[in-house]
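Figure 3 (text version): structure tokens given as input.
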């Protein structure tokens, strides 16, 4: 079996609000030092898959810079290795990807023709998985398509493709994001295809081509091909919303996290920025937190995740928060239930995140509504002011943008 992994990494991730405003969702930082895409790339190489194509589209610059030639994942190879594929002009059908299967279709001429098996993966999920047992399951069942599946809470089923299987794990029904269902078995967005089958399906029939794997390909193939479900019992999370992203980071701070980053037999690889060691000042206090290299802590950090180069000055308090690289929390400031993007500055004695959790952001009530305040990239919050919850502070804002205290649910 010659396997080519195809990673779909062009997602805009609009539900992550300003966290994905200047970068693709797979490039969003996670767990301090990593990017979301690091997990699927590491799963590939830890599964001995070194032939990888990454399909990008939305704001790819940060992602391309992070991936480079694939060296941190041992993918800088003459044969196989890492390839970055983007939409391009010159196709009569249109240049922008219309959906997940259309993205693969547009790149069929550039996929490895010697691969007999294509492993289609999402670039925006957090999990550790050895793909080899799934590939063996696919082969043993003589399947045309195998879908990775797991059970999700009933209240979350509307976010996923939900399916039903028979006693042999063959899929007999599939509905994409159903409003009502009795099944909780969800697609993980992981697909194993026989390469020849995938090509025929993507070429379509009668002039009609499928656009999306979940909406078109899987439901269509159930009637005509051998389609099986491979059950996955480990940790897997779609960090597609602000709350799920915050929850997944906070889960890492529990005494026994479901996602263990410290197992030596399954390293999560990443491109690391050169930084000095963490430095703690004489008055620094820490409680259940993750600190990355380059952090300088003079104040108090409680139950938080800090990316490289974060500075917390004397008398400052960071609580239940996620601070991206080079965030600076000035002396005496308080940051509570906040996600700050790279280069954000919280001025002296400012208080970010106070008041009721129940007032959603007025501009984006469906995205920012669980009490988390978001501070955009390179935003500078004025000193001395108080900022409520579910507040959205856009990138690059200067202190002059703050005319006084900011109430819960506002946007600056």
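Below: residues designed for each position.
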């Amino acid at each position: 079996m010659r396997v080519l992994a195809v990673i779909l990494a062009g997602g805009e991730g609009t539900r992550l609000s300003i966290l994905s405003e200047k970068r693709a969702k797979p490039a969003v930082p996670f767990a301090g030092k990593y990017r979301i895409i690091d997990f699927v790339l590491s799963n590939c190489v830890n599964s001995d898959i070194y032939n990888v194509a990454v399909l990008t589209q939305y704001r790819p610059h940060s992602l391309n810079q992070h991936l480079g030639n694939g060296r941190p994942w041992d993918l800088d190879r003459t044969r196989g290795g890492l390839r970055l594929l983007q939409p391009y002009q010159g196709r009569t059908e249109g240049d922008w990807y219309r959906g997940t299967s259309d993205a693969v279709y547009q790149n069929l001429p550039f996929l490895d023709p010697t691969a007999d098996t294509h492993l289609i993966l999402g670039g925006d999920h957090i999990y550790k998985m050895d793909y080899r047992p799934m590939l063996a399951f696919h082969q043993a069942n003589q399947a045309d398509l195998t879908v990775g599946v797991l059970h999700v809470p009933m209240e979350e089923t509307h976010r996923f493709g939900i399916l039903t299987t028979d006693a042999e794990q063959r899929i007999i029904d599939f509905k994409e994001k159903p409003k009502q269902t009795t099944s909780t078995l969800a697609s993980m967005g992981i697909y194993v295809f026989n390469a020849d089958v995938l090509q025929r399906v993507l070429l379509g029939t009668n002039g009609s081509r499928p656009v999306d794997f979940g909406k078109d390909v899987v439901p269509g193939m159930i009637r005509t091909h051998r389609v099986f479900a491979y059950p996955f019992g480990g940790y897997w999370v779609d960090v597609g919303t602000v709350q799920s992203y915050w929850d997944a980071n906070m889960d890492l701070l529990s005494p026994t996290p479901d996602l263990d980053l410290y197992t030596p037999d399954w390293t999560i690889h990443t491109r690391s920025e050169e930084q000095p060691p963490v430095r703690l000042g004489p008055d620094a206090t820490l409680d259940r937190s993750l600190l990355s290299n380059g952090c300088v802590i003079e104040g108090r950090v409680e139950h938080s995740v800090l990316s490289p180069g974060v500075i917390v000055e004397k008398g400052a308090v960071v609580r239940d928060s996620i601070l991206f690289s080079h965030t600076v929390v000035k002396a005496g400031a308080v940051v509570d239930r906040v996600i700050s993007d790279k280069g954000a500055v919280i001025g002296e004695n400012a208080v970010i995140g106070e008041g009721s959790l129940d007032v959603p952001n007025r501009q984006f009530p469906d995205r920012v509504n669980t009490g988390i305040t978001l501070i955009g990239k390179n935003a500078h919050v004025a000193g001395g002011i108080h900022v409520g919850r579910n507040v959205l502070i856009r990138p690059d804002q200067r202190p002059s943008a703050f005319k006084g205290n900011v109430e819960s649910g506002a946007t600056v």
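Residues 279-401 form a domain with the UDP N-Acetylglucosamine Acyltransferase; domain 1 fold (CATH 2.160.10.10).
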